[in-house]
């Protein structure tokens, strides 16, 4: 139910659709308040009569659709006189069977001159003669209304006196009722006055067209749709047809037309023939031959169509079209369409040279491979060029548009382009729309677009663009309003940070910026480009810097540890043993070549003397199974108070001795109580000693002991050595004198 004032207050509502509502009751004021309503659709609303439809006050109503209802009477209610603006009334698919003169009384009293009336799919049986006399309509449609040609003939005769702009007769593709069509059916049309006639979907249409269209001599527009016609051969020249449409009529051969008045011919979807046949239509201006599977062996010149006045030519969706003429005699052409036909020899010469008035050219998907750079020479007035789905030599777009200075729209999509010449668009100063989508461009090289001062729309979607350099983005025309970069393969790496930031800054310019997705790296795959964060790059740079610095420090530390490993071991040992009692009085460093002197002299005199000193000797005190270097540090240095260095020529030449000496220096530095006692066994050559710079300096600056093999020299040597070893050693002095005398006797006897 729709109650009174249901739409009150909707003063500006222009369209109301009630389709499919099972309305049982409409109040008289149901549509009150709709003072601006222009379109009312009440399809399938159980409406049984126009009398009960409360719309008489809708003076602005232009379209009323009450199709698919239960209306049985064609009577126009009195309130139709209050609908002066009504232009379209759809009563199709109702239950109307009979139409009487009384039903159109309102139209006789106040005619609606622009009314279009659709009565299709009503089971018409009878139209009272004279019912439509002096009635003027814009259009009347009667499709799938009659159950026999007899009834159809009666009803058409009942239309006598009707003045109408366009009359549509026929059936629907899926609503075929008449099994055959009688030519006498159309005889009743002689009593009508109309300008346009359309007849559609009649089976078993008469094969002999002689006299079939005699009542249509003065009609200006004829449309024959899906009729079983083999040909049109009997049309006399004096027919005044100006516009003829032959659509899906199963012609076996191209019709031989001799209509001198014909200006427009639409011949499409007639797939029963394969070869184009020349015809002569001297006043023809518009020719549409698309979707016929026709082959043209010689295209195109005025001899093909018998006219020099042609302005519109559509040969799209056909088979092979061989170009062997440059449109001689067709210089007035303004619109030319070859799309989805296979063009041959179009690349051999300047095929469009004569078409200086052409405004529109479509050669999309014509299997054209552009090699000849002069292919578009002559098209000085061209405004729209569509050449999608073709290809170019080396997949490079060359400079082929030099003369197209008036071009506004250019479509180069799906041309397998990988590169664009820097001069490709230099002459297209008026170009406003450029489609470069579905190609193989790897980067957004904007330099070729710099001359396009009028460009407003640039579509580079569905390419393989990964990025664009920051300096290149500056070449985009300032006039650009929309740029489409969706469905590309953007690499969201930090090295492309400037481009990715540009994308964020240009959201208003970019179409579907939210749909621009990253394909690299893997952790950002299928993520929006807008989700890329510059902070990530800063963080990555910091991480990389820290990582490099860390690696560098670790490497340096590793080298230092490797080089000073034993020094570090010594340091650790000093901390461990620094406060404990020493096991040995001295650790002896000497060359194995001097081992006899160490055993017979040094050990015997120090360990057997008074006080006795305990020496650390590698051959005796080092722990078996432990590395030599570890024994030197752990057993030698860490457990000894002093270090005795026996310097000789052999010592200087021994790598192990020099190593032990360097460790001894570190040991002396780390241990506050440590001391190194140098014993020089023999006179050393200065040149040899200088090979060990540090040792040379130490011996030059510090006191050392020299071994002399004489009684006095030996006495002084042992006295000085004991004194040095006693420094820092705790011992009891009892018996010291006796011990000294015994030591002197032992020395004298030796």
TrEMBL record:
A Gene Ontology term for the protein's cellular component: early endosome
Matches recorded under SMART domains: LRR_SD22 (SM00365), LRR_TYP (SM00369), LRRCT (SM00082), TIR (SM00255)
TM region(s), chain numbering: 542-566
Keyword terms of this UniProt record: Cell membrane, Cell projection, Disulfide bond, Endosome, Glycoprotein, Immunity, Inflammatory response, Innate immunity, Leucine-rich repeat, Membrane, NAD, Receptor, Repeat, Signal, Transmembrane, Transmembrane helix, Ubl conjugation
SUPFAM superfamilies linked to this entry: L domain-like (SSF52058), Toll/Interleukin receptor TIR domain (SSF52200)
Similarity annotation: Belongs to the Toll-like receptor family.
Every TIR domain range: 582-725
Membrane-topology descriptor: Single-pass type I membrane protein
Protein name: Toll-like receptor 4
Pfam families: LRR_4, LRR_8, TIR
Organism, scientific name: Platanista gangetica (Ganges river dolphin)
Biological processes annotated in GO: defense response to Gram-negative bacterium; detection of lipopolysaccharide; inflammatory response; innate immune response; leukocyte activation; MyD88-dependent toll-like receptor signaling pathway; regulation of tumor necrosis factor production; toll-like receptor 4 signaling pathway
GO molecular function, one term: transmembrane signaling receptor activity
Cell compartment(s), UniProt: Cell membrane; Cell projection, Ruffle; Early endosome
Entry-linked InterPro entries: Cys-rich_flank_reg_C, Leu-rich_rpt, Leu-rich_rpt_4, Leu-rich_rpt_typical-subtyp, LRR_dom_sf, TIR_dom, Toll-like_receptor, Toll_tir_struct_dom_sf
Keyword Disulfide bond: yes
Gene3D superfamilies from the UniProt entry: Ribonuclease Inhibitor, Toll/interleukin-1 receptor homology (TIR) domain
């Amino acid at each position: 139910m729709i109650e009174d004032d249901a739409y009150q207050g909707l003063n500006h509502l222009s369209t109301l659709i009630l389709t499919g509502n099972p309305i049982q009751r409409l109040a008289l004021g149901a549509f009150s308040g709709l003072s601006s309503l222009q379109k009312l659709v009440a399809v399938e609303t159980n409406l049984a009569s126009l009398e009960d439809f409360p719309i008489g006050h809708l003076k602005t109503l232009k379209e009323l659709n009450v199709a698919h209802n239960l209306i049985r009477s064609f009577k126009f209610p009195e309130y139709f006189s209050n609908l002066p603006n009504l232009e379209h009334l759809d009563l199709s698919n109702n239950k109307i069977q009979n139409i009487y003169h009384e039903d159109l009384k309102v139209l006789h009293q106040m005619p609606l001159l622009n009314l279009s009336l659709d009565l299709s799919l009503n089971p018409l049986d009878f139209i009272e003669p004279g019912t439509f006399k002096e009635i003027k309509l814009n259009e009347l449609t009667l499709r799938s209304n009659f159950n026999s040609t007899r009834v159809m003939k009666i009803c058409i005769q009942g239309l006598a006196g009707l003045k109408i702009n366009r009359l549509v007769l026929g059936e629907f593709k899926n609503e075929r009722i008449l099994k055959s069509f009688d030519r006498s059916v159309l005889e009743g049309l002689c009593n009508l006055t109309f300008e346009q006639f359309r007849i559609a979907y009649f089976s078993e249409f008469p094969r002999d067209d002689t006299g079939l269209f005699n009542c249509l001599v003065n009609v200006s527009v004829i449309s024959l749709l899906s009729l079983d016609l083999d040909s049109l051969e009997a049309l006399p020249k004096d027919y005044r047809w100006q516009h003829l449409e032959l659509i899906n009529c199963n012609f076996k051969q191209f019709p031989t037309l001799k209509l001198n008045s014909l200006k427009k011919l639409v011949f499409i979807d007639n797939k029963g023939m394969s070869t184009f046949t020349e015809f002569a239509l001297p006043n023809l201006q518009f020719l549409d031959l698309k979707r016929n599977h026709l082959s043209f062996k010689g295209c195109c010149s005025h001899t093909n169509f018998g006219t020099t006045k042609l302005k519109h030519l559509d040969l799209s969706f056909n088979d092979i079209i061989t170009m062997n003429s440059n449109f001689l005699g067709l210089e007035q052409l303004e619109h030319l369409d070859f799309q989805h036909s296979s063009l041959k020899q179009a690349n051999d010469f300047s095929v469009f040279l004569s078409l200086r008035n052409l405004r529109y050219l479509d050669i999309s998907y014509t299997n054209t491979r552009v090699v000849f750079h002069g292919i578009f020479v002559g098209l000085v007035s061209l405004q729209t060029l569509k050449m999608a789905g073709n290809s170019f030599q080396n997949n490079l777009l060359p400079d082929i548009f030099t003369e197209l200075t008036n071009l506004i729209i250019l479509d180069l999509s799906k041309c397998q382009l990988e590169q664009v010449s820097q001069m490709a668009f230099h002459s297209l100063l008026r170009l406003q729309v450029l489609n470069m989508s579905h190609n193989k461009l790897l980067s957004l090289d904007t330099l070729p677009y710099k001359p396009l001062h009028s460009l407003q729309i640039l579509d580079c979607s569905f390419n393989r663009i990964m990025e664009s350099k920051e300096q290149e983005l500056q070449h985009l025309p300032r006039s650009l309003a929309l740029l489409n970069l969706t469905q590309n393969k953007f690499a969201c790496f930090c090295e492309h940070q400037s481009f990715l930031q540009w994308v964020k800054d240009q959201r208003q310019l970019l179409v579907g910026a939210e749909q621009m997705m990253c394909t690299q790296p893997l952790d950002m795959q299928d993520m929006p480009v807008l989700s890329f964060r510059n902070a990530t790059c800063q963080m990555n740079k910091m991480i990389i810097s820290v990582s490099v610095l860390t690696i560098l420090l670790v490497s340096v530390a590793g080298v230092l540890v490797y080089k000073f490993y034993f020094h570090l071991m010594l340091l650790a040992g000093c901390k461990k043993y620094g406060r404990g009692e020493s096991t040995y009085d001295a650790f002896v460093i000497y060359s194995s070549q001097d081992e006899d002197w160490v055993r017979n002299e040094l050990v015997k005199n120090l360990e057997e003397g008074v006080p006795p000193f305990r020496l650390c000797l590698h051959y005796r005190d080092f722990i078996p199974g432990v590395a030599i270097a570890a024994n030197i540090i752990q057993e030698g240095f860490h457990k000894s108070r002093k270090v005795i260095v026996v310097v000789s020529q052999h010592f200087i030449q021994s790598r192990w001795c020099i190593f032990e000496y360097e460790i001894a220096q570190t040991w002396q530095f780390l241990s506050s109580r440590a001391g190194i006692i140098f014993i020089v066994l023999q006179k050393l050559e200065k040149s040899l000693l200088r090979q060990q710079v540090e040792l040379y300096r130490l011996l030059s600056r510090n006191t050392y002991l020299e071994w002399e093999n004489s009684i006095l020299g030996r006495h002084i040597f042992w006295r000085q050595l004991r004194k040095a070893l006693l420094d820092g050693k705790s011992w009891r002095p009892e018996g010291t004198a006796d011990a000294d005398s015994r030591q002197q006797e032992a020395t004298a006897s030796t």
